[in-house]
Amino acid sequence: MYKSNYSSKLLDDAIEQFASLPGIGRKTALRLALHILKQPMENVARFSESFISLKSSICYCPVCRMISDDGICPYCSDNRRDQTIVCVVESLRDVISIENTGCYNGLYHILGGIISPMDGIGPGDLAIAPLVERIREHDVKEVVLALSTGMEGETTSFYIYKQISSLPVTVTAIARGVGFGDDLEYTDELTLGRSIETRQIFKP
Amino acid sequence: MYKSNYSSKLLDDAIEQFASLPGIGRKTALRLALHILKQPMENVARFSESFISLKSSICYCPVCRMISDDGICPYCSDNRRDQTIVCVVESLRDVISIENTGCYNGLYHILGGIISPMDGIGPGDLAIAPLVERIREHDVKEVVLALSTGMEGETTSFYIYKQISSLPVTVTAIARGVGFGDDLEYTDELTLGRSIETRQIFKP
Known about the structure:
By secondary structure, chain A is of the alpha/beta class. Helices cover 41% and strands 10% of the residues of chain A. Among the domains of chain A are: 49 residues, Orthogonal Bundle (Helicase, Ruva Protein, domain 3), CATH 1.10.8; 93 residues, Dna Topoisomerase Vi A Subunit, Chain: A, domain 2. Chain A is built from seven helices and six strands, in the order H-H-H-E-E-E-H-E-H-E-H-E-H. The mean pLDDT of chain A is 90.
């Protein structure tokens, strides 16, 4: 139970709401609430309404399940992108991360999670069937698996591979190896071992 | 001009709004916006409305200028507090800081700033006249000056002192000295000098 520390229930409420955000503690929440108090009403209204709009008006692309303002997302409808490559990711955060690299120009397919028996998430809970259908019905030449490593990611990748390996599509996976700036000394053996096994022609 | 990084203008807007808060960068703003997206509509509505309510319904105590939900603030209306001591502070943040110490049981008077010719803030812009009136009309026995140190705070303290020194009230100021946990070696000379001059009987 939260004890009112300040002279106003309204301030307490605003602080509580800020503190409900991940990574925001009570001290920061107080600072943010006092900041809000100092803004003109117009700005506060714009601030608050942006979240309501986000939540109430956002929709999901029927093709790749990326968030979108209306219907097909900007990636799927962009003809300058290579429509024959589909990168399979867990969530929209991964799409944003990959987009930030500027190294990928194909489309995406968001699964909405990974297979996790512990959390009761099976293949049926993920957008795997729509992926198979998408490959069947569109001219997809390559599927890039970009799921997290670890038991659950590997299981999911393997499951997807089994579902689509009979289709006329190349299945690839993002490279695993020693990251730029990482010390070999501190790299785990699995990663280092894999990076030696999958070594590539040196191109200086 | 902000370039849309994501697939949705709505998401961009929400990120921009979060990033307008002090100390929140773009990366954190993205994380917070995605958090909002995952919450049920009900929570998002409560989140947003708390700021609108704070801004639109808050009022200021006519006695001490502390924020309050309606009329006289909880401090001024609390009979268990010593109504004869008034602590003069710059802003409501200072009230919160002093309340957090649990060491003060009197009332407050918020000036709303300090005298700052550089920023064009003169005595007339601050709640100094209301303070004088408050001391005249109520049974105030002690005024505690708790303004920041430095040129502007000292000037303001001195100005207030001149205004009220002829009234039957004791004027005190919070003690300056070496903070708990501070190394003497790293304490500035002004502070250390003052703390030697104002040394007190040792009470173990």
